[in-house]
Design brief:
The protein is of the alpha+beta class. It is built from 16 helices and 12 strands. The radius of gyration is 41 Å and the shape is extended.
Length: 448
């Protein structure tokens, strides 16, 4: 009889280390066998720890030029009582690192834990301690996602892809604020179909190779080929279509080790001086994996689909025959119509989801927080400490009110000035008329 763990054991999330290699690979393999892996993982790099340990010293030397903060991905594990419960991998989507992508979320199901550590349990404890796979994915997966939202402070938008038939992952992402952005469809073309397409001569007189000088043209093409909401989430700039020296060197080494070759080109419109079509194909030179292609066409030049597809089919004839994989979105109906017309097979259907994240700035706590003050205490500081001294403006305002007061009425008539003897008898007081005129009296003219 085993001891039942308490339910309030805290889950600890940490970065993946080299000693976790076997556990993570087994966990990812189990997720792939269940069919939970997204089809986009086939077009992108699947989750694996660094294979080539001899290059570790070279990477550390290049870290002096390439800061460690500019990491290409982040992988984290969730542990509970020294047992791995799940993992997550995230990576930046654009060069400015404002949009990050959730590559994979995998959770250890209770059946796997019981199979790895077979123990005897009582009949009373079994129904109370067993957790359903959906409950474990919802709890552990949500904590992993929330940890990444707080850890990656530079990410303003998060992006992911999930299979439309995976109800558990859809519920997990919706629970954590992800909303549908676009629907993706993945296609495959057999080698026989590629051979038939290659027989057609492509009509591309202005097909040019891609270089860093064409980054502005490719950026404008990418902007015009997607709706505004998707463009806002992707947040791509001209820098995303350029390749620096370090990136080109690492890409060449990676292609040499994986026996692949990348071929790209774009169609230039001389009248508009703009790029109207672009393709990139990754060829497998030893035939161990399928070819992968990316295709971007301006919405006003959909007639380029047969031409670019014929060009890519001709390129694949120079390497061992293999399946060609490419993707299309729901805002590109012309591409899907053309792929259906040439007989391409639908491999998978996924849903692209996104959400925004607003990071709260850390504020220093004052000894007396302003939130704890009451309204009466706040207004107490605005009361005057003593009676204000009247100024020039207040005196002028009171004088104007006294002169324009209607209740004062008309002033009484001034009495006639008394004679000199009467005024002297009353104490020498002289009643001057109002208003008093102190000017000199008019002089009398000479007597005639």
């Amino acid at each position: 009889m085993t001891q039942v763990l308490p339910q309030n054991v805290q889950i600890v999330i940490r970065s993946i280390q080299y000693r976790d290699r076997e556990v993570v690979e087994r966990l990812c393999a189990d997720e792939f066998d269940r069919g939970n892996a997204s089809p986009s993982d086939a077009l992108d790099t699947p989750f694996k720890l660094p294979r080539f340990r001899p290059l570790r010293g070279l990477k550390q030397a290049l870290s002096l030029v390439w800061p460690p903060s500019q990491q290409t991905y982040g992988a984290y594990l969730a542990e509970q009582d020294n047992q791995i419960q799940g993992m997550i991998r995230v990576s930046p989507f654009n060069r400015t690192r404002s949009t990050w992508r959730v590559d994979r979320v995998a959770v250890v199901h209770p059946t796997e834990t019981a199979a790895d550590t077979p123990t005897e349990t009582s009949d009373a404890a079994t129904p109370s301690t067993a957790r359903s796979p959906h409950a474990s994915l919802s709890s552990v997966g949500s904590q992993l996602l929330r940890y990444c939202f707080e850890k990656v402070w530079e990410a303003r938008t998060w992006l992911l892809e999930v299979d439309v038939n995976d109800a558990d992952l859809l519920a997990l992402y919706r629970q954590n604020g992800f909303q549908p952005l676009a629907q993706m469809t993945y296609w495959s073309l057999a080698p026989e179909q590629l051979q038939d397409i290659a027989e057609r001569e492509p009509d591309l007189p202005n097909l040019l190779p891609v270089s860093n000088a064409d980054a502005q043209l490719l950026y404008q093409l990418d902007t015009a080929a997607m709706p505004p909401l998707v463009r806002q989430v992707f947040d791509r700039h001209v820098l995303d279509f350029k390749t620096n020296l370090f990136g080109s060197l690492m890409g060449g080494v990676k292609s040499w080790l994986s026996h692949t070759e990348v071929v790209s080109g774009y169609v230039f419109e001389p009248q508009r001086k703009a790029a109207i079509g672009y393709f990139q194909i990754r060829l497998c030179r030893d035939g161990s994996q399928s070819h992968q292609a990316q295709l971007t066409v301006h919405p006003a030049y959909t007639w380029l689909y047969p031409e670019l597809m014929s060009q890519m089919a001709r390129i694949t004839q120079e390497v061992p025959a293999q399946v060609l994989e490419l993707a299309s979105s729901d805002y590109q109906p012309e591409r899907e119509e053309y792929l259906e017309r040439i007989g391409a097979n639908r491999v998978a259907h996924t849903l692209m989801m996104s959400r925004s994240v607003w990071h709260k700035l850390r504020e220093s706590k004052l000894p007396m927080a302003l939130d704890s003050l009451q309204l009466s205490e706040v207004l107490q500081g605005f009361k005057p400490a003593r009676k204000p001294v009247p100024g020039r403006i207040s005196l002028m305002r009171s004088f104007n009110q006294s002169t324009t007061d209607p209740k004062a009425g008309t002033p009484p008539e001034a009495p006639t000035p008394p004679s000199g003897s009467e005024s002297a008898g009353r104490g020498g007081l002289i009643n001057l008329p109002k208003p008093t005129d102190f000017s000199d009296p008019p002089q009398e003219g000479p007597c005639c």
